[in-house]
Each structure stands twice: as C-alpha cells, then as structure tokens.
Amino acid sequence: MKLPIKKVVEGLLELQETGESGTILGIGPMSKNCLQAALELSHDDDFPVMFIASRNQVDANEFGGGYVNGWDQFKFAEAVKEVEEKIGYQGLSYICRDHGGPWQRDEERNNHLPEQEAMERGKKSYIADIEAGFDLLMIDPTKDPFEVGKVIPLDVVIERTVELIDFCEAERKVRNFPEIGYEVGTEETNGGLTSTETYETFIQRLQVELEKRDLPMPTFIVGQTGTLVRRTDQVGKFNFKNAYDLAKMAKKYGVGLKEHNGDYLDDISLLEHIQSEITATNVAPQYGTEETRAYLKLASLEEKLVENGLITEKSNTKDVLLKHAIASERWRKWMVGNQRDLTTPEIIANPELSEEILDIAGHYTFNNEEVKTEIEKLFSNLWDHNVDGQRYVVDHIKRPIRDYAECYNLRGVSTRIKNTVATYN
Question: Which residues contact 268 (CB under 8 A, 6 or more apart)?
Fold first, then answer.
C-alpha cells in the first residue's frame, strides 16, 4: 500500500530534526512528456513527486475538461499510470488538485458566477477528484470575482475552507476511499495570508473549526515566501526569514509549509529551502516553457537539415506554435503592465515580442490538433536522421527538475521517509 501523502509530510518534518529532510516538488503536469520526465527522475533518484493540476489544466468534462491533453481527472490519473507502467516505475507519486474550489476556472471568474453556483461547481469537481483517486486536494476559495483587489475577510476564507473540507471528507467516506491530504491557504495576496501573524491566526482558527467537526488538519498550508513569476522569470525575491518563520509556525501544528510560484529560482535560493524547512514547492509554467524550448531547438535542427538537402518537406512547428500561443490569450496573465493589453497584430509585427509570447504560452497549445500534427511531422523527419525527438524533449524537461531535486536534497529521501515512518501499517 502506498504511503499516504500526509505520512510523507510527517516523515519530512521528523527528518528536519536530523538534517536529512528535503523539499519535495509539486510539478505542473503540462504534458505526458512532463509526466515521464518527472517519474523517471523520481524513480532513479528515489524521491516522491507530486503532480499538481489546476482546474484550468484538468477538470471534469461537464466543465469543459482541461487544456492539458483535454484531460479530465480520470484520464489524468490513467496517463500517470500508463507512464509508470511504461518505465517500470517503483516510487512514490501523488496526484494532486492545485487551486480547487469555487471560481477556479477562468470562465467561472470572468462570468462572475454567484457564490452558491460557484461553490456547487467546485464541489462537483472535487467529487471527480476523489473518485479518480487524487491523493491531495487544495482547498482555495479565495479567487472571489466580487472582491477584486481586496483582501477577502479571514472569516469568509475559514468558513468556505471548512465547508469544502467537510464536504470532501463526507464524499470520501461514503465511497469508503482511503484518507487523502488537504492543502489550504493561497499564495495570492487577496487570500490575506501574507504576514506571519495572520498565518498563525488562520491555522489556529482553522484548527478549532476542524476539531469541532472531527475533520483532519491539513497536510500543507501555503505561505508567501516572496516568490512571484512573471513572463518566464522569477521576479520575486526569496525571503528566508519569512519562509523559516512560517515553516516553524506550521510545524507546531504538525503541518508542512508549501511554497507556490517556485519557478525559475536561482541555485542559492533553492539551496536555502532545506535550511528554511519548506516541505514542498510548486513549479509549473517553467516545465511547460522548457518543453516549448525543446521543440524550437528541434525545429532549428530540422531547418539545418533542410538547408543541407537532407529533408525536403519540413514541418511548420514554430509558426503553428506561435499562432496558437497568441490565440490562447493565456500569456496575458504572465505579462506586466500595459503588455497585458497587446493585440495580435502588435505581437506579430514585433519579432522579439513574438518570441517572448511563444516562450510564455507555447505549452498551452500542445493539445491543439494542428500543433500535434506539426510536432509529429517534426519527429518523423528527425527520426529518419537518427534523432529521437520525443526522447530529447523528455530529457530537456528533466534538466530543470534535476536542478531542483539536487538542491532540495531529494536523492534517497523516499527511503529515508519510509524508514522514519516504519511504524505505518
């Protein structure tokens, strides 16, 4: 029987006392290639891996599915299992909901769904998560379209959080499913959990309300460590003291500190994570960007083979990726200032800007049929000349994951955790 995610975190908290702990990675499942890259490293280096899917990425078909391969929760779980079987995976992998709850799909927020309807949709999504066998559910009711730019009152955040945990636990128990973990809080400033004082107040009050209802304490509480992603850069600054204080505070309640927006961190900041006792970090768009860059490098190789007369009919990978990246509109959330309002003609007329948009938003297009056709043609052309394109893409994604795993002291941490919680039955 697989070790529950809650036991993994308990093991990490114990290992912090001996200096043998690590910071585990929550990886945005941007594609099947990304799953394979993470699982291969997890298998080879013996560390747990979490796949963290937002509702925009993976969701029930009645809500439109997700932009990642059109996956609903069941297809997502099947894809993880298929890759595990393909590579002979023997390790600890966890399927997790990132930012679950009301208004977490873009259209729900943009359409200003009433609270009751948004909560019902969030609950239906959680039921699908539970039935698909998710190991961890993030309860995040803080993206309220009626409170734009405002700090949502702590009472409201706690009330909605408890209601959703209560609902999920009832649905889990009626199906006789094993225990799952919960993640609460948010990195968003409108969640109000940006100071250590508010953070502990939130934990204390949440604990009281959960105990009243005989509900479990969360596995993770998200805290703001100073990280912030814009474009394809880490524009925040990792705040060691804040991270350390939040981690110690969470640990008093048997909970792990979870960091979001961990993409593109430098090695020094990564190395600080062990000393600051952060138990987990989420990284998502970076790995999608790395996959886009891998396709573009292969397309450049294809171009050179055309120039040398070895390929007569090349794919149109780059242009098709760019066209659909712009059309996705998803790059806007990562831009800064007036650049969020750019038009398609403005982007196309500016080669430098086009490259930037493609770098940011290429991964949102991987499930587009035209994009898939061109990538298949690219791979076929290169295969004829002894280049395994798919293998190159997987290995390219592995590079930044490996960097994080090394700095986060993850090699062998699964075995160390199992030895620490050996009394688990």
Answer: none
379/298 Cα distance (integer angstroms): 8
Closest CA to 9 of 32, 26, 28: 26
> CA–CA separation, 35 vs 138, rounded Å?
20
What count of other Cβ atoms lies within 10 Å of the Cβ of residue 198?
14
Q: What pTM was estimated for this model as a whole?
A: 0.96
Amino acid at 386: N
| Token duo for residue 319 | 């242009």
Q: Rounding to the nearest 10 degrees, give the CA dihedral for residues 365, 370, 374, 377.
A: 130
* Residue 209 to residue 193: CA distance in whole angstroms: 18
List helix spans (H) across 176-315: 196-212, 240-252, 267-276, 285-307
Residue 279's alpha-carbon distances to 15, 91, 189, in angstroms, are 11, 18, 21
Given CA atoms 292, 295, 299, 301 in this order, what sign does their dihedral have? positive
Distance between CA atoms of residues 256 and 269, nearest Å: 19
Per the structure block, which two tokens stand in for 388? 């395994």
CA distances from 264 to 36, 401, 408 (A): 21, 11, 14
Identify which of 180, 408, 116, 369 has the alpha carbon closest to the alpha carbon of residue 283. Answer: 408
Residue ranges and CATH numbers for the domains of the chain are 5-283+409-420 (3.20.20.70), 288-397 (no CATH)
How many residues in total does the chain contain?
Answer: 425
Name, in order, each residue with C-beta under 8 angstroms of 221's C-beta and a sequence gap of 6 or more.
183, 184, 185, 199, 202, 203, 250, 255, 256, 257, 258
**DSSP SS3 for 289:** helix
Q: pLDDT (tens digit, 9 = 90+) per residue, 241-272?
A: 999 999 999 999 999 999 999 999 999 999 99
Q: Which residues pair with 52 in a beta bridge?
A: 96
pLDDT digits (tens, 9 = 90+) for 69-113: 999 999 999 999 999 999 999 999 999 999 999 999 999 999 999
DSSP state of 397: H
